[in-house]
Every structure is written in C-alpha cells, then in structure tokens.
C-alpha cells in the first residue's frame, strides 16, 4: 500500500541569527534515490545543541534546524531504497557519510569530511520529518520506548566509541568518567558492561547521584578525585580517563590521574590552550586520544546493549517540540540531569 502524500510544509524548531529558537513552518523534505523520509517521533537534546545555537548567534554558521538524536518511523522511500520499508520504526544516525572517501572505504565514517551531519549542516530532528541515507538507519527494537531510544544516536554511540573503541576499557580496569551528563551516564553503564571499575566525577550533587544510580562504583566532586583514584586503583592510577567536559581544568585533572599505560580520551571540544610534552606520552606509555563522533557500528552495538537491558539512557525531561527553547535554557542552566527528549508529535507517556 502506498504511503499517503506528505503535506507541503512541516513544523520545526529553528536556531535563528538573533539567538532565538523559533517554531517555524518549512517545506517538507524530499528523499533522493537512496534516501528515506523519517517521521520524527522523538529527538534527544544534546549539550552540543547549545554550542550550535551560540555559533548561529555569533554568525559562525547559518540558521539551522538542530537535533542529532533521532528515532522515528520511515514515511517515504527513495526509488533505490532496499534496506527498510515504509512504516518501519528506526533509530537514525546523524552522520551522513559520502561513502566514497578513504575514511568511508575503511569504515571510519565518523571521519568523513565530504558528507553531512543531521542537525549540524543538514536539517535535523527538531522537526516533524527528516531525510537520511538508507544506510544510516537501523531497526528500533520493539522493547525500547521512544524516549530511551532517541539518545542512543549520539549519547549512546559516542559513549561507546570513547569507552570501548578508543579507551579499550576492560575487566578490572579503572575508568574515570569526568562529567556525568547524558553521554557520561551512558559511558558509565557501558564501562560496567565491560566489567571495569568506574569512578564518576562531577561538581553537581544531583549528577553524582545519577552516576551512582547508573552503577558507578563511586561518584565524587572534582576535589576528591585524586584520593578516590588512589584508593580504587591501589595507587596504580587510572587505566582510562574520559573527559566529557573539555576545559583546561578537566584535562589537567585527567592527566594527573593516569597510571602506566593509561589512556586519556577527550570527547568534549574546548578552546582553552593545554600543554602536552613528549614526556607526557613516553613516560609510562600513556596515550592521549580524541573521540570524534561515532560510526554505524558503534550505534548498532549500543542498540543491542539497550535491547538487552544493559544500557538505559537517563532521560529526566520530556517535552513537546514547541518547548524546545525552554528545554535548552534549562539545559544551559544546569537544571537537566541526563537527557531531555522532544516530541514533534504526540507525547510518549
């Protein structure tokens, strides 16, 4: 049965040049031959969206429809689509790689520089519909609710890349998670799946409590971190430190915690100057790594973990799309622990 035709326009939340977040009517997206139109059922709100809003206001990028954590229902198919069907529930990966560059050929699609990214330089999920390449959507397991599934596209996949693909966290290793926000809380759970010990570090008491609820072994304020690492590692230092904050202070803290063979993984971007010497790398065989986005393989693995009940993104706020501005304001003020999720259509209970 053919899908009913889409209306000419759709509702979306758009970041404007004056720094506002406005609900606007824009033309409905059209699928190319190998693309699908997805009706957005839920969209996660990431702290990166605040950085994008600031960049739009500063004139560093044009107005945009944000949203890179997307779950929805396939609405329309391009003429050459063969991987999914109209009506399928899917999780959308925001990276839309070119499929042809050297990074794509090596399955390192997160490093593709010729593709586009939904919610960054292509219209994202703060809208009723979004267009994605057919090879960037994966089936939504039937036992996952929409609010839990939406953050998997960034919060879950980014955390997996940092903890496993780069950090290589393993059994009995000590993983220090700096910043117990949405991605950090997912990282804690993923590290525990790999049987690591986890220390969460956050200045907010509510975030530390959420970290313990996510099964962190301990959760401390920054000033207590060095002593906690000494106790948990028996003075050997941390095996993996993952920085989800991205300031000079968190980098210096993380570096001070590494033991021999330790891996420091920077996830959050930051512009403060830091200093790394050759001695920092050679002494004890330490490694400093940058986590850049995620791949479809990362997304597939976190969907499997969520389906098995081993990863449960922490969602503490659900709101309709018109409340996007208020939700972002609360996120900036530090009033949201974990993730908020927007619903362009009917609200999930």
Quick tags:
349 residues, Quinone Oxidoreductase, Chain A, domain 1, Rossmann fold, seven-stranded mixed beta sheet, globular
Structure description:
The chain is of the alpha/beta class and 349 residues long. The protein is built from eleven helices and 17 strands. Helix 4 crosses helix 10 (296-307). It is globular and about 65 Å long. The model has no long low-confidence stretch (mean pLDDT 95).
Weakly predicted, low-confidence segments: none
Q: Give the full name of the CATH homologous superfamily of the largest domain.
A: Medium-chain alcohol dehydrogenases, catalytic domain
Number of helices: 11
Q: Structural class of the helices, strands and pairings?
A: alpha/beta
Secondary structure layout plus pairing:
Layout: E1 9-15, E2 21-27, E3 35-45, H1 47-57, E4 69-77, E5 89-92, E6 95-96, H2 102-105, E7 116-117, E8 129-133, E9 137-139, H3 146-149, H4 155-166, E10 174-178, H5 182-193, E11 197-201, H6 205-213, E12 218-220, H7 225-233, E13 238-243, H8 248-257, E14 258-266, H9 278-282, E15 287-290, H10 296-307, E16 315-320, H11 324-332, E17 339-343
Parallel strand pairs: 10-11, 10-13, 11-12, 13-14, 14-15, 16-17
Antiparallel strand pairs: 1-2, 3-4, 3-8, 3-17, 4-5, 5-9, 6-7
Helix pairs in contact: 4-5, 4-10
């Amino acid at each position: 049965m053919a899908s009913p035709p889409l209306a000419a326009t759709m509702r979306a939340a758009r970041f404007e040049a004056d720094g506002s977040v406005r609900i606007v009517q824009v033309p409905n997206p059209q699928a190319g031959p190998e693309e699908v139109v997805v009706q957005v059922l839920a969209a996660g709100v990431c702290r990166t969206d605040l950085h994008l809003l600031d960049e739009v206001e500063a004139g560093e990028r044009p107005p945009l429809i944000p949203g890179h954590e997307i779950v929805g229902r396939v609405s329309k198919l391009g003429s050459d689509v063969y991987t999914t069907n109209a009506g399928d529930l899917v999780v959308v990966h925001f990276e839309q790689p070119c499929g042809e560059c050297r990074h794509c050929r090596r399955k390192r699609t997160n490093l593709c520089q010729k593709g586009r990214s939904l919610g960054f330089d292509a219209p994202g999920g703060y809208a009723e519909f979004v267009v994605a390449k057919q090879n960037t959507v994966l089936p939504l397991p039937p036992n996952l609710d929409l609010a839990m599934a939406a953050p998997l596209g960034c919060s879950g996949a980014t955390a997996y890349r940092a903890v496993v693909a780069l950090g290589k966290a393993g059994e009995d290793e000590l993983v220090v998670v700096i910043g117990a926000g949405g991605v950090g809380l997912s990282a804690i759970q993923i590290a525990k799946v790999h049987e690591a010990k986890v220390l969460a570090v956050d200045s907010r008491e509510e975030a530390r409590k959420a970290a313990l609820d996510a099964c962190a072994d301990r959760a401390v304020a920054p000033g207590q971190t060095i002593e906690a690492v000494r106790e948990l590692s028996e003075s050997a230092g941390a095996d993996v430190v993952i920085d989800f904050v991205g300031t000079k202070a968190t980098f210096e803290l993380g570096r001070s915690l590494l033991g021999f063979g330790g891996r420091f993984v920077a996830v959050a971007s930051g512009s403060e100057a830091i200093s790394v010497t050759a001695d920092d790398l050679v002494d004890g065989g330490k490694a400093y790594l940058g986590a850049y986005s995620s791949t479809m393989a990362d997304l597939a693995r976190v969907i499997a973990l969520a389906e098995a009940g081993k990863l449960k993104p922490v969602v503490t706020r659900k709101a309709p799309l018109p409340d996007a501005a208020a939700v972002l304001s609360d996120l900036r003020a530090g009033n949201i622990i974990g993730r908020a999720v927007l619903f362009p259509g009917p609200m999930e209970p």
